[in-house]
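Quick one:
INPUT:
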């Protein structure tokens, strides 16, 4: 995700107001990129146990969640109230992310890890081994 993605969802004056730290009236790309990177890390960490996301490009559903959380971060850094439509969008994104993290909602384009019982180990306890659903 990039500054362009954020510019598609926020009005130019709103984006500049949230990110212009140097006073030139333009959005600061570094601020936007930091918010996007932090949101993407949060999303990857949250779904790590439910899907095999690794360093792959996030699928569309997760990119949208990360974008929403990044916009929320931009408002929070200015201690500005998140507009109502964004509040609702962020709430939906968190529910969706929670469902994906719990494995209730699959993430299209990403394989799910699964655990299978393996052979008994030398100490006679059953061991478990994560495997891929698909190769």
């Amino acid at each position: 995700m990039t500054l362009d993605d954020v510019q598609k969802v926020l009005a130019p004056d709103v984006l500049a107001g949230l990110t212009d730290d140097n006073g030139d009236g333009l959005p600061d790309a570094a601020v936007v990129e930091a918010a996007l990177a932090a949101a993407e890390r949060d999303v990857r960490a949250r779904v790590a146990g439910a899907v095999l996301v690794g360093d792959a490009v996030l699928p569309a559903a997760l990119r949208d969640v990360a974008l929403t959380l990044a916009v929320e971060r931009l408002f929070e850094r200015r201690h500005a109230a998140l507009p109502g439509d964004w509040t609702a969008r962020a709430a939906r994104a968190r529910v969706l992310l929670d469902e994906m993290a719990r494995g209730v909602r699959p993430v299209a384009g990403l394989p799910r890890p699964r655990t299978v019982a393996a052979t008994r180990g030398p100490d006679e306890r059953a061991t478990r081994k994560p495997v891929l659903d698909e190769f």
